[in-house]
Design a protein that fits this description.
The structure is a homodimer. Chain A is of the alpha+beta class. Chain A is built from ten helices and five strands, in the order H-H-E-H-H-E-H-H-H-H-E-H-E-H-E. In chain A, 48% of the residues lie in helices and 15% in strands. In chain A, helix 1 crosses helix 8 and helix 2 crosses helix 8.
Chain lengths: 222, 222
C-alpha cells in the first residue's frame, strides 16, 4: 500500500474530464474494461446492498436505439469504445422487506439469522423514518445515489490508467427506459436508469476545467 | 500520466472499508486532508454546477451535538481524525432559474451571455421534463447524487494514501439538520445534509469484504 503519490492521483483527477468525442479507432482492452468494472464492484453502498446493475452496450443496433431522447449521448454512442448503462434497483429489490434484501443478508453478507433480523429492523427504521424513503421515487433516488459512488470510482480508476470517460444525464428518463424495456430486455419495473457512462480515448484536447476554489466549497469548524 | 498500475489501484479499493473505529491517537496531516478535499473539488457534477458544500467538524462540542439522532456516527464522532458533513444545495441554489446558476455560468464557467441563455434553456428542460425534478425533494435528491460522486472520490483518494474512511447515512435527517441549523450556522433552507464522512486511521483490522461476483452485476450486449 501507500505507493501512489498524491501528485499522481491529482494528475488523474486533472486528466479526467467529460470527454465529448472519442477516437473511434481506439478500443479499450478487455482486461482494462474489466478492471474499471471491478472498481464499481468494490465500491461501497448504503448497508452494503449494492443496488446496481451495469449493462455494457457494444452492439451497434442497440446503440442506435439508445439515441432516442438521449440528446447528451448521441456522439458518445457513436464514438465510445465502451458504453455503460448505470441501472439502479427499484423498491422491488431494495425495500426493507424485499426478498432480495433477505437473500443478500443471508447469502452475500453471511449474517446469522438473528443479526439479519436486527439489521432489517434498523433498515426499516432508516427507510421509513430516518431518510423518509416512503415512495417509489424517493427509494429509487436513494438507491441511485449509491450508484453514483460506483460511477465516480469507475471514472477515477479509468483516468488513472489513461482512459477517458463521459458521465451522461442528458436523456429523457421515460423515453430511455422505454428503449431499455423494448430492446434490451430490461424490466424497468425492477430497474431504473440512473446514468449512462461512456469510455474510450479522447479525440481532442479538453477545455480548461472550471471549478470554484477550495475555500468556496469547504468550511472548517475548529 | 499512466504511472499508476491497476494492481496498485485495486489494492486501494481493497484497503478501503467502512472503518468502524478509528485510532484516536493518529491525526491526518493537514496537507493530506486538503488533498482529500481537493479530489472532491475536482469531481464532476451534472452540468458542472458543483451543488456541494463540505463542513469539516473538528470542534469537540459540535461533534457532541452532532451525535443527536446520528446512531451510525457516534463512535466515529469520538474517534475520527477528521469529520466531514456532505451538504447539498437545495432548489434555492440549483433550480434552473436561480441566481446561483446564473452566477455560476457567468463567473465560474465563463460562458458568454448567449451560450449561458442556451444552456439555461437546456437545463430547464432537463429539470422539468427529462428528469422530472419538479419538487423540492426530487431536486434535492438529484443534486445529492452529484455529492455522492465527490464522496466516492474522497474515500478512494484517501485509501490510496493509506487513510481510512467511513461513509455515514446512519442519522435521522430531520434531527441532524436541526442540529446543523442550531449549532453550526447552516441555513437548512438552502442546504440539506446528504451524508457524513469520517476520516482517520483504523484501530482494528477490517472484516472481509462481501460483494456479489462481477457476472452478477454486469451484463454485456455485444
Amino acid at each position: 500500500m501507500n505507493m501512489i503519490t498524491k501528485n499522481e492521483i491529482l494528475n488523474a483527477f486533472k486528466f479526467r474530464h467529460a470527454c465529448k468525442v472519442f477516437d473511434k479507432t481506439k478500443v479499450i482492452a478487455k482486461n482494462d474494461m474489466e478492471f474499471i468494472l471491478e472498481t464499481a464492484r468494490l465500491s461501497p453502498s448504503s448497508f452494503g446492498f449494492e443496488p446496481w446493475y451495469f449493462v455494457v452496450v457494444q452492439n451497434k443496433e442497440l446503440r442506435e436505439k439508445l439515441k432516442k431522447g438521449a440528446w447528451g449521448a448521441t456522439i458518445k454512442l457513436d464514438t465510445a469504445s465502451h458504453f455503460v448503462l448505470g441501472l439502479t434497483m427499484r423498491d422491488f429489490f431494495i425495500k426493507y422487506d424485499s426478498p432480495y434484501i433477505q437473500y443478500f443478508m443471508s447469502q452475500i453478507q453471511h449474517l446469522p439469522e438473528e443479526a439479519a433480523l436486527n439489521r432489517r429492523k434498523i433498515f426499516k427504521t432508516f427507510q421509513k423514518k430516518d431518510f423518509d424513503l416512503n415512495t417509489e421515487r424517493t427509494l429509487f433516488d436513494w438507491a441511485s445515489k449509491q450508484c453514483y459512488i460506483a460511477m465516480a470510482n469507475m471514472m477515477t480508476a479509468a483516468a488513472m490508467i489513461g482512459i477517458d470517460s463521459c458521465p451522461i444525464e442528458g436523456f429523457n428518463k421515460k423515453t430511455s427506459e422505454e428503449v431499455l424495456q423494448k430492446y434490451l430486455d430490461i424490466d424497468i419495473k425492477k430497474y431504473g436508469l440512473s446514468y449512462m457512462l461512456a469510455f474510450g480515448y479522447r479525440l481532442n484536447p479538453p477545455k480548461d476545467k472550471t471549478r470554484r476554489q477550495l475555500n468556496e466549497i469547504v468550511g472548517w469548524k475548529e
